[in-house]
Amino acid sequence: MGRINVLPDILASQVAAGEVVERPASVVKELVENSIDAGAKRIVVEFQKGGTRLIRVTDDGSGMDRADALLCLERHATSKIRESADLVAITTLGFRGEALPSIASVSRFRLSTRRREDACGTLISVSGGKIHEVEDSGDAAGTRIEVADLFFNVPARRKFLRGEQTETAHLLQQIETLAVAHPEISFICRRDQEEIFRLAATEDLAVRLRDLYGEKFLKRLVVLTPQETQGVRVYGWMARPGEGRSDRSHQLLFVNGRMIRSPLLSQPLREACEGTLAKGLHPPAVLFFEMDPSAVDCNVHPAKREVRFRDPGLIRTVALQAARSAWKSLKPLTDHEFSPGVGTDPLFPPIYSGKSAVHPTWMPSDHSIQCELSEQMSGSSRIQETPVSDDPNSSGCALHQSSLSARYIGMLGGRYLLFEEKESLLLLEIRAARERLLYERFLSRLSQGSLESQHLLMPELLEVSSADLAWIEAHRDLLNAAGLFAESFGVGKHGVGSLKVDAIPADAATLPIMEIVVCLVDELRNIGEAPTLDRRGREVLAATVSRIAAAGASLPDGPEGAMMLLRQLLASELPYVTPKGRPTLIQLAPGELLRRFAA
Ligand code: ADP
Ligand code: MG
């Protein structure tokens, strides 16, 4: 006998489920997409225990007759395409006919459905892919699908599920995304018996975004005038200059109503922000791209998270133009409205902001200084690099705190300290230097316990999305270690969560609390699925809090303060870079100056 078997259907479905159903959130995605495809006007999503115990999606869409209800559980059964020519222009969210049988093969599954015109509906119970019962049902017109005990028969998959709160966060984020793509549908979401949000149908996308993410989120964005280039339409919102987050969770990019993660779309957005956003930050955006369905191939990813464009160059150009044009309508920056551009991070207002009397004179001029310097520097030596070889006298050698003969010259633009050191020029970036020093202090502190925190006299209530809220709840230990004490204060009826903040990292006390929270959450999320306080976790935590704290620190006090900062920096473990790799100190060697002034 040969060794090749054809897989039995159930096993084949379980294999397919491996691609389509990663976690409860993917079940929600498939079910809600089906409801949308079925023309639903109202969708209710209920779940228990992060969706692992139960997910129930109820819609008022077309429903199915009995024959279809039975058929939809067969592999490759779909009403959405008939022949391969249809694959060229897909207008529905589903088309593979794989979701329902896959989900049914790895759960206890119940489907209840009725078409408006039928007197009696159908209820089908399936367990691990086997149909157990087919009965009449008297439910309202539409479809209700229950998925209980996900992966109960696939222990290997079950093991990969995260804790309840992590799964809940993923699940909520998934519903939020679908709700943004379909403001015309009303969404209700319940966990156990508690209603998490109820979003009224609306024609105005802005209303939907406000309901979901709160007023403040919208205020950080500018509306894009809808535009069309060679058949590709784009509209939506783009971040204001200088607005950035360190992950892309606030980039919602849709192609023909389907949320897509693609560097082809996100890179041009980043590019448009060049010079206004610090490295590693991404501009939040909510953008809808619409084009002829035949211009995009959705059939490249099992969960349909990626697409292929017929003309990628065109899409890139459209995205870039759109992002750039969004800012044309903006008024010139004012210092309190937006953070100034040039490499600043909105989460870290410039040191002068608010409290300091120093005026932001470096607004335009700083840019030119910075460019000039970096051009000049490119040929010269950063301090940690080897000496410039053609000039033995150049002091490219490492500086030592003990043999330091530096003389303080002055401060430039409230941002740099200038020193003379054996005929060379030292430029120290104040914030970067502080970051390095604080980082080392925090890191050693964290290995002994947690960072100091400062109690707020009055707890502060913040608006955050329900997904962020769930994440925060799930990672309290980590946030506590950073000195942040915050807890959920419930979710409003529109789905905007309230976060009650009781204490913040002591060294960051001068910054707006919202920025501290947003920054911590964004950064810690990047550690990975289940961040812990291991070595890497501590490093990320220390780096994050040091960035926050350095941004809020005051300027060095006179020449003594300046000299002290330089000495402390040189005494640190890695004086010349911030934990994120930015330079803290640049040295212009005499050889370099000679060369520049040579005839
Ligand atoms: P696909 O969406 O790729 O067609 P699915 O396995 O998700 O595949 O669904 C199979 C079929 O079942 C769909 O094509 C549709 O005809 C039907 N169906 C699924 N969910 C619903 C629903 N909520 N309302 C009406 N019909 C549905
Ligand atoms: Mg489907």
Distance between the termini: 87 Å
Major beta sheet summary: 8 strands, mixed
Structural class: alpha+beta
Rough outline: elongated
Point out poorly predicted stretches.
331-397
Number of domains: 3
Strand order of the largest sheet: 5-4-3-6-2-1-7-8
Q: Kindly state the mean pLDDT as a whole number? A: 81
Strand content: 15-25%
Overall number of strands: 22
Rounded radius of gyration (Å): 28 Å
Bound molecule kinds, no repeats: adenosine-5'-diphosphate, magnesium ion
How many helix segments? 18
Which bin fits the share of residues in helices? 25-40%
Report what the structure shows.
By secondary structure, the protein is of the alpha+beta class. The chain has 3 domains: 9-205, Histidine kinase-like ATPase, C-terminal domain (Heat Shock Protein 90, 2-Layer Sandwich); 221-325, Ribosomal Protein S5, domain 2 (2-Layer Sandwich), CATH 3.30.230; 373-599, no CATH class. The protein is built from 18 helices and 22 strands. The chain has helices at residues 9-20, 24-37, 66-71, 99-105, 155-158, 164-181, 205-213, 215-219, 263-272, 312-326, 362-379, 430-446, 466-474, 476-481, 513-525, 535-552, 558-571, 590-597; strands at residues 42-48, 54-59, 108-114, 121-127, 130-137, 142-148, 186-191, 194-199, 221-229, 232-239, 251-255, 258-259, 285-290, 296-297, 308-309, 407-412, 416-421, 424-429, 453-465, 485-491, 496-505, 585-588. The strands form 5 sheets. The protein has an 8-stranded mixed sheet with strand order 5-4-3-6-2-1-7-8. A 5-stranded mixed sheet has the order 9-10-13-11-12, sandwiched between helices. Strand 11 and strand 12 (258-259) form a beta hairpin. Helix 2 (24-37) runs parallel beside helix 6 (164-181), helix 9 (263-272) packs parallel to helix 10 (312-326) and helix 12 (430-446) runs antiparallel to helix 16 (535-552). It is elongated, with a radius of gyration of 28 Å. Mean pLDDT is 81; it is low at 331-397. Residues 30, 34-35, 38, 59, 61-64, 72, 77-80, 94-100, 143 line the site of adenosine-5'-diphosphate.
